[in-house]
Design brief:
It is built from 14 helices and 18 strands. The chain is an alpha/beta fold. The chain has 2 domains: 221 residues, Carbamate kinase; 149 residues, VC0802-like, CATH 3.30.2130.10. α1 links the parallel β1 and β2. α3 runs antiparallel to α4. The protein binds aspartic acid. Aspartic acid binds next to α8. The site of aspartic acid has 14 residues, from α8.
Length: 454
């Protein structure tokens, strides 16, 4: 059985919805269909989820909501009209949103917000089920409450209650036909609607794929496959091959450095259950897309992708004979822990220790205080915080045990006159990272692309 998830761009209008139905009907194994709320129809359009957020905010401020309410209903009405689904489904959606709005005073603000946000997916799932029926194929809308999608944690940032896997698995152990399942939300144990973080329909799909032990989790979006580097930086990458297969490890490393393949949280359920994930394009369903799985056949000496992420800084501490001091590293990290700062990497030299941190954790106004605390704890000879660093990540299982991969990257950067501020390779050898100044990012990524892919 396959679980497929269609994102907002795949469900933005009637033409897209027709493609979705064709895709599902083309393969009888596609049995659970997770849907997002309708997304943007064109540049400058607004996603239904964003309209709903605006609507909720107006309602909470006690302002007039007519225009936003009309805009939300219109998105569904437009699809229903184009697909000849009749008036009934539009009335149901209108009523549903009216009922939700009526709860404005009786719920805490964050609860009300989640209730409103969830309408995007919930009403879309109902409409999609009706659209299948109009094509003469029965598809059943299933509500997350009835199937056991129990969430805990904070509203708007909820996580799955681990007991849910078994409950969801049982709910789908014996079912006929096609199920249409709204993404992005579930219910708390006391029956309140709660949503995952934005983009959370991916999480729903991944959870269901794990719960039913699907053969594959197909995630339909608007790209043919994952490109080996960011097409906004290297435009020609679009003319070349996408990545046919990658391992979970490779995906994790690439997404760490900004590859927008998936939100890390979204894949955890599928990865833990070892369900292969297939990224595919709703607009080109014949394309095989990118398959992400536990292992793959690897060609030695090859790289799967080059990623880059801005927004890092480096705390550099130097102290003569540091290597003989016991507890230096612990004291350094203790200062960061006390300040609530999580660190990323810790490269070191004989008498120097660096700690790479996301810049957002050390805003400029905090820097002086932090440096003072480090001076007090470590009595260093020199301390500085380098800002505006970009982390380049060169990733590939094919690099393991292959000499010269780092040399190739260094030569590529040297050829365009870029100096490196840090190099770091973990013992897995599946990736190495190089920190450079952010101003050099685009040139560096292009040089690495040329070195490894052309
Ligand atoms: N509709 C929600 C959002 O825009 C969830 C999703 O599309 O995955 O964030």
């Amino acid at each position: 059985m396959k679980v497929c998830k269609f994102g907002g761009s795949s469900l933005a209008n009637a033409a897209q919805l027709k493609k979705v139905i064709d895709i599902v009907l083309a393969d009888p194994a596609r049995r659970i269909v997770v849907v997002s709320a309708p997304g943007k129809r064109h540049e400058g359009d607004t996603k239904v989820t964003d309209l709903l957020i605006e609507l909720a905010e107006l309602a909470m401020r006690g302002e007039n909501t007519d225009r936003q309410f009309g805009a939300v209903v219109e998105r569904y009405a437009e699809m229903a009209a184009e697909l000849n689904l009749g008036e009934e489904i539009v009335r149901r959606i209108e009523l549903d949103i009216t009922d939700r709005l009526a709860q404005v005073g009786s719920l805490a603000p964050e609860e009300f917000m989640d209730l409103m946000k969830a309408a995007g997916e919930d009403d879309n799932a109902k409409l999609v089920a009706v659209a299948f029926a109009a094509r003469g194929r029965k598809a059943r809308y299933v509500n997350p409450k009835d199937s056991g999608m129990i969430l805990t944690g904070r509203f708007g940032d909820a996580t799955l209650d681990p007991d849910s896997y078994a409950i969801l698995g049982r709910a789908f152990s014996n079912f006929d036909g096609i199920v249409i399942y709204p993404g992005f939300f579930g219910y708390t144990r006391d029956g309140k609607v709660a949503t995952f973080p934005r983009g959370g329909s991916d999480i729903t799909g991944s959870i269901l794929a794990a719960a039913v032990r699907a053969d594959v989790y197909e995630n339909f979006t608007d790209v043919d496959s994952v490109y080996p580097c960011d097409p906004r930086i290297v435009e020609e990458v679009k003319n070349g091959e996408g990545i046919p297969t990658m391992t979970y490890r490779e995906m994790r490393e690439l997404s760490y450095a900004g590859f927008g393949v998936f939100n890390d949280d979204a894949v955890i359920p599928a990865v833990r259950a070892r369900i292969p994930i297939n990224i595919r394009n709703t607009n080109h369903p014949a394309e095989p897309g990118t398959m992400i799985q536990q292992s793959r056949r690897v060609v030695p000496g090859t790289v799967v992708g080059v990623a880059s992420a801005d927004g890092f800084c480096n705390i550099v501490v130097e102290k003569y004979l540091m290597n003989r001091q016991i507890g230096f590293g612990r004291r350094l990290l203790q200062v960061l822990e006390d300040a609530g700062i999580s660190y990323e990497h810790m490269p070191s030299g004989v008498d120097s220790q660096c700690v790479v941190v996301k810049e957002q954790f050390i805003p400029k106004e905090m820097e002086h205080r932090l440096v003072q605390a480090l001076k007090k704890a470590l009595d260093p000879d020199f301390i500085t915080i380098e800002r505006d660093l970009t982390m380049l990540m060169i990733v590939g299982e094919g690099m393991c045990y292959t000499p010269g991969m780092l040399a190739k990257a260094c030569l590529a950067l040297a050829s365009v006159g870029i100096s490196m501020s840090m190099v770091n390779q973990g013992s897995s050898e599946v990736s190495f990272m190089i920190a450079i100044r952010s101003k050099d990012r685009d040139q560096a990524v292009r040089a690495l692309y040329r070195a490894f892919f052309t």
